[in-house]
Automatic annotation (TrEMBL), chain A:
Belongs to the binding-protein-dependent transport system permease family. MalFG subfamily. The keyword Isomerase does not apply. GO terms for biological process: transmembrane transport. It comes from Ruegeria conchae. One of its GO terms (cellular component) is plasma membrane. This is Maltose/maltodextrin transport system permease protein MalG.
Automatic annotation (TrEMBL), chain B:
The chain crosses the membrane at residues 9-32, 72-93, 105-126, 154-180, 265-282. This is Carbohydrate ABC transporter membrane protein 1 (CUT1 family). Residues 68-281 form the ABC transmembrane type-1 domain. Belongs to the binding-protein-dependent transport system permease family. It comes from the Bacteria.
């Protein structure tokens, strides 16, 4: 009886600890983001208030200023948003096409030095953006594509291709070879067999690769901050710095832009989150 | 069908071309310029060959070594803590029976944040004047405003916190996926045979999770330099170079001091560092795969 009771107590305690632990972890994950969202709706006076004000009031001032064009500091948010969308979407599209063809080559063909090529490609992805930005800055300036959409798109395509190859390679490998062989016997060319049979099966993998490519381009800062100079090509991560002056920072405005930046990524990820996890694990474990 | 150029080569061609144009050629150029005293302000310096003097200079410069050591220390602490926290979180979430999907979705939250955004977010939260942390501390009765980003040690802590906040979820999610994929039988058999929970974790769960851990490590190691964004916005390497990492030192040398040749030499050191990390984890990954019989 006594032992039973002790055992039960211990179990209850473990359960409590488990709950508390999870609660703590989840709060640490959520609070920073929520704090940013909350502060994007608070007037600047309240953000700066000393002693701190804990029951927040609500205002849309920061959003109004942000979308009103020449608001506080006149940060041209619309241009940044547009640049970000154009650059991320285009580079993702191209990177997925190139990466898919590469991934297919690795998954379906045998050739000597395959794993060498593979690791070699990955190593190019590992080159730190800052280290790459130094020579790219000079080369792009010479070629005259600095501060253009084209230049940044080119860079992001190159950045995303290796990882896309990794992910799609894993997915194509899941598909049995018999599938496209059967299609070819039925009179398809290899090209048709790919688009009509193999691509639909691997679609979720391609989708997850596309999301990763998109997030990388959407969020990239180290290269974009050096390769863009003007309103015509600055992306949002670079634009975020417009809110900081030497000693004053427009916290509310920055929060509003941060919310604008995170929203598309958030929505996109929610839509495809199942594929995302599958993509990462298949690509890696079975690859 | 023509047999001269193999199909796989045609398929890989676009990838090779893009990478060669955007990564390889600039890297070759930067390798060359790291042997010159190239300064952005004086283009003619590009044609003076000074041999390995740049490398000699950085290798004898204590500022460089301080940044280098700090970077290694930073990565070691960050990666280890991320792994431990990720493992802990995954085990906890795996135990949950209700609302697991929601928890998993919440876990993915930090993955979507741009590093620059994470840096800004924590710059705000750790701000000594208006930040959340100090506001809470003050409301709880402590009257000293802790200088989170101004004091060297506290700033390093804040940056580490931001880095770990951002990257732990990669580990947690991948390890969680591993836990889902794990067969139940060996664990039950171990229980019947009288293993303690610790023993069955150590000898059954952990070995099975190893490939997943190495995938997470490999994915992480491809992106170690992301910390640059965080440091750049949070402290810019300050105060007085106390949080200077290899990457911020490099960008300061290159863009602020315009000493491109010297900066490129540093760049090569950082590239080698990244490559070493990646190769190390790739090796581990294929070894772990082979052990589980998952290799192709």
């Amino acid at each position: 009886m006594d032992r039973n009771q002790a055992h039960r107590n211990r179990r209850r305690m473990l359960k409590g600890l488990h709950f508390v632990g999870l609660f703590l972890v989840m709060s640490i994950i959520c609070i920073p983001g929520l704090w940013i969202i909350l502060n994007s709706f608070r007037p600047t006076v309240e953000i700066m208030a000393k002693p701190p004000v804990w029951n927040p009031s609500f205002t849309l001032d920061h959003y109004r200023a942000m979308f009103g064009g020449a608001g506080q500091g006149g940060v041209p948010v619309f241009s940044y948003l547009w640049n970000s969308i154009v650059i991320s979407v285009t580079s993702t599209g191209i990177a997925v096409l190139i990466g898919m063809s590469g991934g297919y080559a690795f998954a379906r063909y045998k050739f000597s030095g395959k794993s060498g090529y593979f690791v070699g490609l990955m190593l190019f992805r590992a080159v730190p953006g800052v280290a790459l930005s130094l020579p790219l800055f000079i080369v792009f300036a010479k070629v005259g594509i600095i501060d253009t959409h084209f230049g940044l798109i080119l860079v992001y395509v190159a950045m995303n291709v290796p990882f896309t190859i990794w992910l799609t390679d894993g997915f194509f490998r899941q598909i049995p070879k018999e599938l496209h062989e059967a299609a070819e016997i039925d009179g398809c060319t290899r090209w048709q067999a790919f688009w009509k049979v193999e691509f639909p099966v691997a679609r979720s993998g391609v989708a997850s690769a596309a999301i990763f490519a998109f997030l990388t381009s959407w969020n990239e800062f180290a290269l974009a901050s050096q390769l863009t100079r003007s309103v015509g090509s600055k992306t949002m991560p670079v634009g975020l710095l417009d809110f900081t002056a030497e000693f004053t920072i427009n916290w509310g405005g920055m929060c509003a832009l941060a919310v604008l930046m995170i929203l598309p990524a958030l929505i996109l990820t929610f839509i495809v989150q199942k594929h995302l996890i599958a993509g990462l694990t298949f690509g890696g474990v079975k690859g | 069908m023509r047999r001269r150029i193999p199909e796989w080569f045609v398929l890989l061609m676009p990838a090779f071309i893009v990478i060669a144009a955007v990564v390889l050629i600039p890297l070759i150029f930067s390798l060359y310029s790291s042997f010159t005293p190239y300064k952005l302000t004086r283009p003619s310096t590009l044609w003076t060959w000074i041999g390995e003097r740049n490398y000699e200079r950085i290798l004898t410069d204590w500022k460089f070594w301080a940044a280098f050591g700090r970077t290694i220390l930073f990565l070691t602490i960050a990666l280890n803590l991320e792994l431990i926290f990720g493992l802990g979180i995954a085990l906890m979430v795996n135990k949950v029976t209700w609302g697991q999907r929601t928890l998993r979705t919440v876990l993915m939250f930090p993955m979507m944040f741009s590093p620059i955004l994470v840096g800004f977010q924590f710059k705000f939260i750790f701000n000594d004047n208006v930040g959340l942390v100090n506001n809470v501390l003050q409301s709880l009765g402590s009257d000293a405003a802790l200088p989170w980003l101004v004091d060297g040690k506290l700033a390093m802590f804040s940056i580490l916190f931001a880095e770990i906040w951002m990257s732990t979820s990669v580990f947690a999610i991948l390890i969680l996926a591993g836990l889902f994929a794990m067969p139940r039988d060996p664990l039950e058999a171990a229980k019947v045979d009288g293993c303690t929970p610790w023993q069955s974790f150590r000898h059954i769960t952990l070995p099975f999770l190893m490939p997943f851990i190495y995938i997470a490590m490999t994915i992480r190691s491809l992106d170690v330099a992301r910390a640059y964004d965080i440091v750049q916005i949070m402290t810019g390497g300050g105060p007085a170079r106390r949080t200077e990492l290899l990457w911020t030192l490099m960008s300061r040398t290159g863009y602020v001091d315009a000493k491109m040749g010297l900066a490129n030499a540093m760049g090569y050191v950082s590239i080698l560092l990244s490559i070493a990390f990646t190769i190390y984890f790739f090796r581990k990954l294929s070894a772990a795969r082979a052990e589980l019989g998952m290799g192709a």
